[in-house]
Amino acid sequence: MDAPTLSDLLDVLGGSSVRALASPGGLGGRVGEILLYDADAALPHAPGAVLLAVGVRPPAAGPLLRAAAAAGMAAVVVRGADGPAGAAEEAGIALLAVDEDAAWHRVHLLLSSAVSARSGGTPSAAGDLFALADAIAAATGGATAVEDPRQRILAYSTVPGQAVDEDRRQGILGLQVPDSMENDAQYRAMFAAPAPLRLPALDADNLPRLAVAVRAGGETLGSVWVVDDGTLAPDAEEALAQGASTAALLLLRARAAQELARHLGGDLLRRVLDGTVDPAGAAHRLGIGAGTDPVRVAAFVPAGVSTAPDAEQTALRLLDLVRLQCEARYGRHACVLVDGVVYALLPAVGERGAARHRQLAQDIVDRAGQALRMPVRGGLGALVAGLARVADSRADADLVLRCVDDGRPVALVEDVRARVALLRLGELMAGRREFEEGAWARTVAHDAAHGTEYARTVLAWLDAGCDMAGAAERLAVHPNTCRYRLRQAREQVGLDLDDPDERLVLWLSARLSGAA
Predict the structure, then answer these.
(1) Residues linked to residue 346 through DSSP beta bridges, in sequence order
(2) If DSSP codes are grouped into helix, strand and coil, which group holds residue 97?
């Protein structure tokens, strides 16, 4: 994968974490590595590097900015908001800032992980968490597990000879802590405690625990649990507290890498949907095979959002829900939000692929409607032969979204093919005088000026195959009323309803105008 740009890193780690104070050359420069400044060593020639200005106060960072620019570096990071933006502009190097109290080792860890994830490196947070669990187990003397806030086990120790109990066995087997009221009470106590907490055994089959919450600032990231068989080290609580601090860094790094991967995958999927990227390379980077397998684009949009802030927040929540549902069925999955519409690539699986795709879309619409408390619509494009034709399926899905409604909130393009064809024809014919100034336009204008219903009657008659009784039934009027209106339309508007070509143009004009 390509190296990330400064813009990529700021999108994922930005906001209150990393901010741009100056970017004289823009933020499109590629980032190669993250370096820590050492005042006792000469700066290396490192094109694309981001230099963390350790030990340098922002107002005094001018010489370092010039030296970093001369070394070909992409940016310098200072702590605090008073960095010398002017000096950075003169030196021609980007200047980034982190909070005054940010730990340099944490900033280095987050940025390094983000660069590694974007460059194709495999995040090592999972392996690091297992290594950390072993280290804590060795230091404390008890079997250790690292969990997320939902009590899912992320890593566990494998130090031989340490005592385990039934809860630990069951938790490791299912990677989930067994649920019980007693467990819930212990978790509440542990998360409320500011330091490692000793907890009694839940029952005769289990052992006591030493546990601590893992936090970063005010955010709870998880917890670490140590089995206490009565032989823990004297300094076990101190060792566990230190281990929790390291766990916080690893969990933050994993989250940063995951968010960056999602962001960059979303950017790539946008180009796939637009048809502006090499399909083979995109397939490899998205992790969806060779790029020639059949795929279908699904599009989802919330209906009834009134204000822009509400619409943005609702769309982001819909994106999370679509991603969750798709990943539950297909594993790692490609989803992206574009102009308020959530798009997902659905692989063709089995002979009943279309039915399964329709059911997935219906499930998403139902769940999203409940979660967002507003109607959600789903449109599915045609099944196409690989990523090279995804733009066609996306165009279909967009048109299907214009065809669905309360009565049918989800549809495949095959379900509404005729309406989609008319919409596409309408796009091709937009602005043509033959349709904008023809017989249908004259009929609509006459109705507006005189309060007549000739247009509605003509369309009903045409839809009924020129059958008077069928038209009357559609309009819920007597056939003589239809006959009278059509005669008046001939005389007053000048419609030649005996000419099959004029009837066809009238019907097309009506349908392309969106007339019901």
Answers:
(1) 296
(2) strand
- DSSP label at 389? G
Q: In this prediction, what percent of the chain has a pLDDT beyond 90?
A: 33
Q: Are 212 and 241 in contact (CB under 8 A)?
A: yes
Bridge pairing between strands 197-199 and 209-216: antiparallel
Residue pair 62/85 in contact (Cβ under 8 Å)? The answer is no
E strand or H helix that includes residue 311: helix 308-330
**Amino acid identity, position 29:** G
What average pLDDT score do residues 432-445 get? 77
User: Kindly report the CA angle at 140 between 136 and 141, in degrees rounded to 5?
Assistant: 110
3-state secondary structure 318-364: HHHHHHHHHHHHHCCCCEEEECCEEEEEEECCCCCHHHHHHHHHHHH
Listed residue (284, 213, 274) closest to 243, CA to CA = 213
Can you tell me the distance from the alpha carbon of 337 to that of 339, in angstroms, rounded to the nearest whole number? Answer: 7
Q: Is the pTM for the entire model greater than 0.70?
A: no
Q: Long-range CB contacts (< 8 A, 24+ apart) of 389-394? A: 390/272, 390/273, 390/275, 390/295, 390/297, 390/345, 391/272, 391/273, 391/274, 391/275, 393/295, 393/296, 393/297, 394/273, 394/297, 394/299, 394/343
State how far the alpha carbon of 65 is from the alpha carbons of 51, 112, 122, 172, in Å: 9, 20, 32, 50
359 in Cβ contact with 380 (< 8 Å): no
Which of the four pLDDT bands, split at 50, 70 and 90, describes residue 290? low
Please give the helix or strand (H or E) that residue 220 lies within, else none.
strand 219-227
245-276 core/surface letters (b: 16 or more CB in 10 A; e: else):
ebbbbbbbbbbbbeebbbbbbbebbeebbeee
Query: Which residue is associated with the tokens 């209106």?
Result: 485
pLDDT tens digits along 218-243:
778 899 999 999 999 999 999 999 99
Residues 88/65, Cβ–Cβ less than 8 Å: yes
> Residue 372: enclosing H or E segment and its boundaries?
helix 353-372
Q: What mean pLDDT value characterizes the chain? A: 83
CA atoms of 273 and 386, how far apart (whole Å): 12
Alpha carbon 131 to chain centroid, angstroms: 31
SS3 22: strand
Query: CA-to-CA distance for 390 and 411, rounded, in angstroms?
Result: 18
CA dihedral angle for residue 234, residue 240, residue 243, residue 244, rounded to 10 degrees: -160
Pairing type for strands 94-98 and 75-79 reads: parallel
Contact in structure between 53 and 78 (CB atoms under 8 Å): yes
Secondary structure (3-state) at 287: coil
Residue with tokens 């106060």: 57
Distance CA 57, CA 61 (A): 6
Which of 82, 90, 96 lies closest to 21, judged by CA?
96
What type of residue is 9?
A: L
